[in-house]
């Protein structure tokens, strides 16, 4: 038996008829067609599926779609400013903070949630928060540099886009 769930996705109202056991990650990808959220380990360990729900970074593989009824959800597609990359995305590009790109949406969403709340986060804090995301390609240094370099945009706007 399917359940209708309505929520806000990247600033727009959406609705889907889903099985109550369907994860939010699968709902976003397969029911709503937003494929930027990557599903990796499906156990909440790798961080590739991280999205933002009501301002908090959350693993979409551990969240059921029905749990977000009435909430605000942001995916990687919501970071861009129209056709222009958002400040964090541009910084990842500038500092080569990605290689294969599989983990990148999770890192970007985790970093966006952090910088939205803590635009003055220092390197130690950034490393601590990003430690829950796994990357097998970059060695993390370029990711840390990219997040550090994006901080002024969040400081100016006191949170960037949220």
From TrEMBL:
<dbReference type="InterPro" id="IPR006058">
    <property type="entry name" value="2Fe2S_fd_BS"/>
</dbReference>
<keyword id="KW-0408">Iron</keyword>
<protein>
    <submittedName>
        <fullName>(2Fe-2S)-binding protein</fullName>
    </submittedName>
</protein>
<keyword id="KW-0001">2Fe-2S</keyword>
<dbReference type="InterPro" id="IPR036010">
    <property type="entry name" value="2Fe-2S_ferredoxin-like_sf"/>
</dbReference>
<dbReference type="InterPro" id="IPR036884">
    <property type="entry name" value="2Fe-2S-bd_dom_sf"/>
</dbReference>
<keyword id="KW-0411">Iron-sulfur</keyword>
<dbReference type="InterPro" id="IPR012675">
    <property type="entry name" value="Beta-grasp_dom_sf"/>
</dbReference>
<feature type="domain" description="2Fe-2S ferredoxin-type">
    <location>
        <begin position="3"/>
        <end position="79"/>
    </location>
</feature>
<dbReference type="InterPro" id="IPR051452">
    <property type="entry name" value="Diverse_Oxidoreductases"/>
</dbReference>
<dbReference type="GO" id="GO:0051537">
    <property type="term" value="F:2 iron, 2 sulfur cluster binding"/>
</dbReference>
<dbReference type="InterPro" id="IPR001041">
    <property type="entry name" value="2Fe-2S_ferredoxin-type"/>
</dbReference>
<dbReference type="InterPro" id="IPR002888">
    <property type="entry name" value="2Fe-2S-bd"/>
</dbReference>
<keyword id="KW-0479">Metal-binding</keyword>
<dbReference type="GO" id="GO:0016491">
    <property type="term" value="F:oxidoreductase activity"/>
</dbReference>
<dbReference type="Pfam" id="PF00111">
    <property type="entry name" value="Fer2"/>
</dbReference>
<dbReference type="GO" id="GO:0046872">
    <property type="term" value="F:metal ion binding"/>
</dbReference>
<keyword id="KW-0560">Oxidoreductase</keyword>
<dbReference type="Pfam" id="PF01799">
    <property type="entry name" value="Fer2_2"/>
</dbReference>
């Amino acid at each position: 038996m399917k359940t209708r769930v309505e929520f806000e996705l990247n600033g727009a109202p959406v609705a889907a008829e889903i099985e109550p056991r369907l994860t939010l990650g699968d709902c976003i990808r397969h029911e709503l067609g937003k494929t930027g959220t990557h599903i990796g380990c499906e156990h909440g360990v790798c961080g590739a599926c991280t999205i933002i729900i009501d301002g908090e970074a959350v693993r979409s593989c551990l969240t059921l779609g029905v749990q977000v009824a009435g909430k605000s959800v942001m995916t990687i597609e919501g970071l861009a400013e129209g056709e222009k990359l958002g400040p964090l995305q541009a910084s990842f590009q500038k500092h080569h903070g990605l290689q294969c790109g599989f983990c990148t949406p999770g890192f970007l969403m985790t970093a966006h949630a952090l910088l939205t709340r803590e635009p003055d986060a220092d390197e130690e804090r950034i490393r601590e928060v990003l430690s829950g995301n796994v990357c097998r390609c970059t060695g993390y240094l370029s990711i840390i540099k990219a997040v550090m370099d994006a901080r002024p945009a969040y400081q100016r706007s006191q949170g960037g886009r949220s």
